[in-house]
Amino acid sequence: MAEDSDQEKTEEPTSKRLEDARKQGQIARSRELNTFAMLIASAILLLMTGGRMGNGLLSLMREQFQLKREVIFDPLSPVIRFKQAMLDGLSLIAPFIAVMVAVAVIAPLALGGWIFSWESIAPKLEKLDPLKGLARLFSLRGLIELLKALLKFLLILAAAFLLYRHFIGELIGLGVEPVDQSILHALHIVGICFLVLSASLIVVVMIDVPYQLWDHNRKLKMTLQEIKDEMKETEGKPEVKGRQRRIQMEMAQNRMMAEVPKADVVVTNPTHYAVALKYDMDSKGAPILVAKGADLMAAQIRSLAVGANVPLVSAPPLARALYYSTDVDREIPQGLYVAVAQVLAYVYQLKMARENHWNEPRPPVNIQVPDEFKQDR
């Protein structure tokens, strides 16, 4: 076991390993991608609906600050107006909130999708260990997170500086514009700045997404011993599979033996092979082989047949031909129809003789078996 623990995880994760990881909530995730998607979506939405929200805000402010005398002295008026103001404000931002919720749900699907797992949300005491926290802080992942934060700061700083140089004149000019025009103009500038600042994070996303996919795959890599153990667990140990096969064979043999007393005739070798046949004259099918066996199994079939008064017919070539050419619960091949018909004719004559107390007919002799079905065993 010590040797197994020292092995390097060089093998790609198997499909079972990946599926087990998904069930535990371990999927590739990029917070940078989710944040970028929400920022870009909100910036575009702000540019598209900024005018409508700006006009709505102006109308809301006019209605709330232009009060008539009777409204001022009405005790219920403040409550009613506040309620109406809340509804109007909510109607202004409802589309924005709905789009943000949709983006928050859809964005994670780009990598690993949504996975709900009790194991992933269950509290873990090891996360409260300060020593492990410091180890994570100074690990490779902690260093990468620090580099990403520094890169985001530099990108936003550079984009903000360029935006400042571009819009400084318009920002100063907002003070001399009419109020309505100034608010709409300010919203337009904010929307463009928001969009540019958000778009600058695409550089971080392009670095983080491949890294998260690589890191997720690296964590799930397996050693050769782990793959062998998984194969044993999946396919089962040889001794267990052998025991299952033995049980299945015993069950099949028991079912086969239960059909022997229902057979019409048992054709024997006479000692090495025994084949039980059943024929339904009302059906249009051929006789069916319901049981067969060799040596000890053949002896058991003969014993059951004698106990159930099923006729035994000694026809070595036919018994061998049926044994090797036909599976249990299958119709006999067409080439053996004539030979089996001779046996069944004898069986029906024997049955009639016993019922009417006649002399029993002689068993058939020299039953001819086609050359292609002969077995010299």
UniProtKB/TrEMBL annotation:
<keyword id="KW-1133">Transmembrane helix</keyword>
<keyword id="KW-0653">Protein transport</keyword>
<keyword id="KW-0812">Transmembrane</keyword>
<protein>
    <recommendedName>
        <fullName>Flagellar biosynthetic protein FlhB</fullName>
    </recommendedName>
</protein>
<dbReference type="InterPro" id="IPR006136">
    <property type="entry name" value="FlhB"/>
</dbReference>
<feature type="compositionally biased region" description="Basic and acidic residues">
    <location>
        <begin position="7"/>
        <end position="23"/>
    </location>
</feature>
<keyword id="KW-0813">Transport</keyword>
<dbReference type="GO" id="GO:0009306">
    <property type="term" value="P:protein secretion"/>
</dbReference>
<comment type="similarity">
    <text>Belongs to the type III secretion exporter family.</text>
</comment>
<keyword id="KW-1006">Bacterial flagellum protein export</keyword>
<keyword id="KW-0969">Cilium</keyword>
<keyword id="KW-1003">Cell membrane</keyword>
<keyword id="KW-0966">Cell projection</keyword>
<keyword id="KW-0472">Membrane</keyword>
<feature type="transmembrane region" description="Helical">
    <location>
        <begin position="33"/>
        <end position="51"/>
    </location>
</feature>
<feature type="transmembrane region" description="Helical">
    <location>
        <begin position="138"/>
        <end position="163"/>
    </location>
</feature>
<dbReference type="GO" id="GO:0044780">
    <property type="term" value="P:bacterial-type flagellum assembly"/>
</dbReference>
<dbReference type="InterPro" id="IPR006135">
    <property type="entry name" value="T3SS_substrate_exporter"/>
</dbReference>
<dbReference type="GO" id="GO:0005886">
    <property type="term" value="C:plasma membrane"/>
</dbReference>
<keyword id="KW-1005">Bacterial flagellum biogenesis</keyword>
<dbReference type="InterPro" id="IPR029025">
    <property type="entry name" value="T3SS_substrate_exporter_C"/>
</dbReference>
<keyword id="KW-0282">Flagellum</keyword>
<comment type="function">
    <text>Required for formation of the rod structure in the basal body of the flagellar apparatus. Together with FliI and FliH, may constitute the export apparatus of flagellin.</text>
</comment>
<feature type="region of interest" description="Disordered">
    <location>
        <begin position="1"/>
        <end position="25"/>
    </location>
</feature>
<dbReference type="Pfam" id="PF01312">
    <property type="entry name" value="Bac_export_2"/>
</dbReference>
<feature type="transmembrane region" description="Helical">
    <location>
        <begin position="92"/>
        <end position="117"/>
    </location>
</feature>
<feature type="transmembrane region" description="Helical">
    <location>
        <begin position="183"/>
        <end position="211"/>
    </location>
</feature>
